[in-house]
From TrEMBL:
<dbReference type="InterPro" id="IPR009959">
    <property type="entry name" value="Cyclase_SnoaL-like"/>
</dbReference>
<dbReference type="Pfam" id="PF07366">
    <property type="entry name" value="SnoaL"/>
</dbReference>
<dbReference type="InterPro" id="IPR032710">
    <property type="entry name" value="NTF2-like_dom_sf"/>
</dbReference>
<protein>
    <submittedName>
        <fullName>Ester cyclase</fullName>
    </submittedName>
</protein>
Length: 169
């Protein structure tokens, strides 16, 4: 392993915010797995750059000005860990999915900014990412965006948004 692995992992987060599929193919191996895709759309649940690009598009649909600031990077063998702060603004609906990739919940846009800590774990092989998983502070994210606790009006908006999303699916 090289110190370039840490840079590759940091680059992968930048690409989640602004990267193309072609750029993602440079950092994600063809068989790369995202262990976090269980609450994401069906297109994200495969392997390789295409699945990670689908995750990026899903996140970008809900959030503008998305970025990750790397606070610390540690490597032990083929494992790289990045402690980050994710920031952005919720300008679109955020849709969460169940284990069958069906719409579980929709959080309508609030226009609010957020800043939350996350720890991303990457397994590397030959300079590319082959596995990713994360620990996220989703509770703080929900509080900052006004999702939790939801006001009665926002709760009604959530239910209507979920109904529309399920109807489109």
């Amino acid at each position: 392993m090289t110190t370039d692995d840490k840079a590759t992992c940091a680059k992968s987060l930048e690409l989640m915010a602004i990267g193309t599929l072609e750029e993602m193919a440079e950092v994600f191996a063809p068989d790369a797995l995202n262990r976090e895709s269980k609450a994401e759309p069906a297109a994200t649940r495969g392997a390789g750059p295409e699945a990670f690009h689908a995750t990026a598009l899903w996140l970008r649909e809900a959030h503008s000005d998305l970025r990750w600031e790397v606070r610390d990077a540690v490597q032990e063998g083929d494992l790289v860990v990045l402690h980050t702060t994710m920031t952005g603004r919720q300008t679109g609906p955020f849709t969460a999915y169940d284990e069958n990739a069906s719409v579980a919940m929709v959080f309508p846009p609030t226009g609010r900014a957020f800043s939350v800590t996350q720890t991303h774990w990457f397994r590397m092989r030959e300079g590319r990412i082959v596995e990713h998983w994360a620990n996220r502070d989703d509770r703080t994210l929900g509080e900052q965006l006004g999702w939790t606790p939801p006001s009665p009006v926002y709760l009604a908006k959530m239910l209507l948004a979920r109904r529309r999303a399920r109807h489109r699916a």
